[in-house]
Amino acid sequence: MLEEHFDDADLWPSKRRTGVLAKIFMAPLLLIVVPLYLVFVFLSIFLLLLFTITGIGPLLHFYFSRGERHLVDREKLIATHSEIFLLDAPADLNSASAGAPYKIAVRLTFPNKNAGYPPVIFPQGLAATMMATMKIQEYLETAGFASVNFDRFGVGLSDPNNTGLPPSAHDVAREMDFVMRHCDELLSQRGGYGDAGRKWIAVGGSMGAIVATAFMTVYPDRLSGFLNLDGFPHGFVTVDKLYLNTYAPMWGLYGKLAPTGMMRLLFSFAKGMVKSHFESKTFDWRSIIAQMNQSQFFKNARVEFNTMISCADLTCAAMENFSTVKMDKSMMRLVCGVAPFESVLINEPKGERERVVTTERSNSELGADWLRTEVTGPALERWLSSSLAAASGPLSIDRSLTSCSLGSHPVGSTVGGVPASTPLWPLTPQLRAMSVRVMSMRSYDGGDGAMGEQMYSQNCRNHSAAEHTLQAALARSGKRIVYPKLTHGGGFAQTTEIRKFTIEIAEDILCWTGR
Asked: Rounded to 5 degrees, what are φ and ψ at 437?
């Protein structure tokens, strides 16, 4: 039995008892941290009142917004950058457009050399635009990839979502397919970059990873490779009250505060991070910050929380028995304890470009060390062999059911908002035919300190570790790489790592296809 391997293993850090010495040392720290936190809260409230009552904030925001117009002027940007264009989406493509046609901003780039690799597409994360991932796109250009970056409806340079309706998982999947089909034609016209039937590689970060899996559920066998860049786990649908009832309203509040200049003030402290993490040759940090200072940026992020959970709900259904929400405690322990392919120390923005393979791990990980491979390896393989679905056809599921802990579908009346006329396809057979790499940033945006450890519950961490492990284990060729010292956002800045693993995925595909 699996349980015998866990009797002496401390796998649930959130349930550890704090030792006497730890309490002694933590007491003075709390005496310092708590007052500082209260000072920060009161200072924020004071600045907000000062900015709004005196009118200084709104005036400054108005002044700087006028100066930034050229940085976010879509028509001027398209005229300046020939690789960016607008794609006319039909009125029925996205239910959130309420029957109105809209324009999608797309950036299609070709490399100087043709390595014969499949094209790459970037489904974006929550509150992320293609400006934020252009740095990665440029690195892939140097490696021989044609790649496509685009902004979803309501995001970035695409038409704003003025209806306030959240797109469903089905909507974003259809939109991604629409962009890919159009770019397939452009790639074919260019010659030597594939044909309309060629499969793609998806590089999905954060929410972008769950958009990619939702896409695969509706459009099977369109992807042959998948780089999961610290993706949002579908298992978070079981704890989504945190997101829909707490974080989502916070973003709505940010949108209301934007005209006061308060968010601009806060973003002024993030210039260094934006510059080091996301600045590209095409767009510098000023353009990215200008885009973030738009009220629409926050309002749309608020709406897309529902979209993200809709994608998670759909993926839960498509993962069948491999959904982490269906795992019992024993299996969750097993999958969370599986050692990754590598644990790596690297941080490019800080000048630490040397790649150091280590046994070090984040406090967010389970236990003092990963379980022994001789224990987890055979046990995981036995479970995979016994649980893999043999069916290759569409799923027959009750679309009225939901894994969402709120008890109702986040968008629409069916899982993922997918109508009954559209078949849903299982994910496991697709993953078994794909090359997959998963880059897991394990410090959960708060570092490995005491404060950071409280940002996500252990339940959230377990779902993340389990899903990332399973995607790599299920793949025909799969690796999970852990970065114990990186934050979630810091992972997007590791361009050499992303380039390395995208090349690995492409080389796998070329080997299988004999190209």
From this structure: -125, 140
Residues whose CB is less than 8 angstroms from the CB of residue 359 and which lie 6 or more positions away in sequence, other chains included: 343, 369
- Sheet of 84-89, strands arranged across: 84-89, 102-109, 147-150, 120-122, 200-205, 223-229, 435-441, 477-483, 342-347, 352-357
- The DSSP bridge partners found for residue 102 are 89
440's enclosing H/E stretch is: strand 435-441
What is the tens place of the pLDDT at every residue in 311-356? 999 999 998 888 888 888 778 877 887 888 888 999 998 888 889 9
On whether the pTM is more than 0.85, the answer is yes
The SS3 of residue 160 is coil
Q: Per CATH, which fold does 66-513 belong to?
A: Rossmann fold (3.40.50)
Closest to 94 (Cα-Cα) out of 291, 304, 279: 304
| Separation of alpha carbons 311 and 231, rounded Å | 12
Is 371 in contact with 330 (CB distance < 8 Å)?
no
Of 239, 275, 250, 238, nearest in space to 127 by CA? 250
**Element of type H or E holding 342:** strand 342-347
Tell whether the torsion through CA atoms of 308, 183, 87 and 229 is positive or negative: positive
Per the CB < 8 A criterion, the answer to whether 51 and 265 are in contact is yes
CA 348 – CA 489 distance, rounded (Å): 13
Where the chain has pLDDT below 70, the residues are: 1-34, 37, 41, 192-197, 239-243, 361-377, 383, 386-393, 442-457, 515
